[in-house]
Amino acid sequence: MKAVGWSLENSFGALPDLLFTPLAPTPVTRPTLVALNAPLAKDLGLDFSTLSEQEQAELFTGNRLPEGAQPLAQAYAGHQFGHFTMLGDGRAIVLGEQTTPSGARVDIQFKGSGRTPYSRNGDGRAALGPMLREYIISEAMAALGIPTTRSLAVAATGEWVYRETPEPGAILTRVAASHLRVGTFQYVAMRQDLSALAKLTQYALARHYPERLGDANPALSLLEAVIERQLALIVEWMRVGFIHGVMNTDNMAISGETIDYGPCAFMDAYHRETVFSSIDHAGRYAYGNQPTIAKWNLARLAEALLPLMDAEQNRAVALAEAAISDFVPRYNALWLRMMGDKFGLEGEEEGDAALIRELLDWMQDEGADFTRTFHGLRDGLPLDGELGQALSLTGWRQRWLARLQRNAGGLAAGQAVMARVNPVVIPRNHRVEEALEAASKEGDLGPMQALLAALAQPYAEGPELARYQESPKPDERVYQTFCGT
Ligand SMILES: Nc1ncnc2c1ncn2[C@@H]1O[C@H](COP(=O)(O)OP(=O)(O)OP(=O)(O)O)[C@@H](O)[C@H]1O
């Protein structure tokens, strides 16, 4: 195959053996390329244009491995809905790490590439619809400026996978800062291999937090770094109304990227208890619970790292608790700053939190659309439309405008920051479903391409975006999303 720019190495493969199994993807019958992310390829220093479409399809299904690939399946564990399980890549293979022209090192992984020793009862495969869904939503998240794994390609396998009904099979090529998860640490801790745990800790620091490598207590330093990244990440999810849906500890990345787009969804109408996932019966992973769950997951990471923090358990526990104990006030401060930006408030004033909460409560009572309301505030200053009238009745509009006038830069400064943080277009469920239906059932990729184009510039205005801004009509509403395997 012609050179496309691969620089693959697999540093993960140099970690202790218990962390992975060397394994190639299982070849597929009839590979067809469905989507290729050309801008991302360019960022990775890759150019596939010299390959024929058939060669690209062979490459993105694993029938022909890229040069330098050292494929392996990673082992990890995880608390799934609170219950601990030993897991691992049951349907994924990491090919290696690509060094990008900007010097970043990223994992290239196939998802849906066949059975592995960690497959349990699964078939090792993935269906086309869910892989395209991950492609669309992860790319939307990246365009929104939120840390996330990326999607380089989706290729169909030409084989059926059997879920509730037979569905076309596909493989997603995922790009990630790494696939280290909280669950990776839980796995090694459960195996009680302290030496492997220490090596994994050094590896994670080197890969994601090199500035902390010389710290006196590496495990504590890693915990602190991951807490900081996760705090920042969750606040970003809350900013755009993103609900991850399966915040199990195997789906929390040490890098601070969003990972695993299973039953995730963006909220239309604002409600703190919104849940889309069909398997989240208790609302454990509801929109408003995400900070609490993040803290719970981080406590699991802390537990896994305890033996490295101090030989004396009580002292280790005290260190871990000190690192995690101010999670809530830190989150609240970041949330308030983020919301202040969404409302265009410069600096912080005594009554800001109350002003913000009052509007959010109003939105929740009215079932107001989250994205449209903030877009309305951003665009409609000084709010003389329908939304303004509703908000005038409560006196909220007047108080908000008065607050904006007290910005050092006045209304204009508020409007500028609002334009930066309040998206116009998000991947609304009904539009995503429409695009997936056309792609996976009729083979028509047009709606998906159009949706991806709109999502690529989520803060831009334009008349052509109207259909992507609309809240779903009652008959378009998607009430549930499925784990989508
Ligand atoms: N069809 C399948 N065959 C084998 N294993 C599977 C299959 N689907 C999921 N798994 C495994 O079950 C576990 C939980 O699945 P989950 O849906 O959270 O992960 P995933 O979407 O496959 O992968 P990731 O978390 O890497 O995005 C993982 O260990 C995953 O590898």
From TrEMBL:
Mg(2+) binds at N251, D260. Its cofactor is Mg(2+); Mn(2+). GO terms for molecular function: AMPylase activity; ATP binding; magnesium ion binding; manganese ion binding. It catalyses: L-tyrosyl-[protein] + UTP = O-(5'-uridylyl)-L-tyrosyl-[protein] + diphosphate; L-seryl-[protein] + UTP = O-(5'-uridylyl)-L-seryl-[protein] + diphosphate; L-tyrosyl-[protein] + ATP = O-(5'-adenylyl)-L-tyrosyl-[protein] + diphosphate; L-histidyl-[protein] + UTP = N(tele)-(5'-uridylyl)-L-histidyl-[protein] + diphosphate. Keywords: ATP-binding, Magnesium, Manganese, Metal-binding, Nucleotide-binding, Nucleotidyltransferase, Transferase. Its EC number is 2.7.7.-, 2.7.7.108. Coiled coil: none annotated. InterPro entries: SelO. The active site is at D250 (proton acceptor). It comes from the Bacteria. Belongs to the SELO family. PANTHER family: PROTEIN ADENYLYLTRANSFERASE SELO, MITOCHONDRIAL. Nucleotidyltransferase involved in the post-translational modification of proteins. It can catalyze the addition of adenosine monophosphate (AMP) or uridine monophosphate (UMP) to a protein, resulting in modifications known as AMPylation and UMPylation. This is Protein nucleotidyltransferase YdiU. It comes from Magnetofaba australis IT-1. The gene is ydiU.
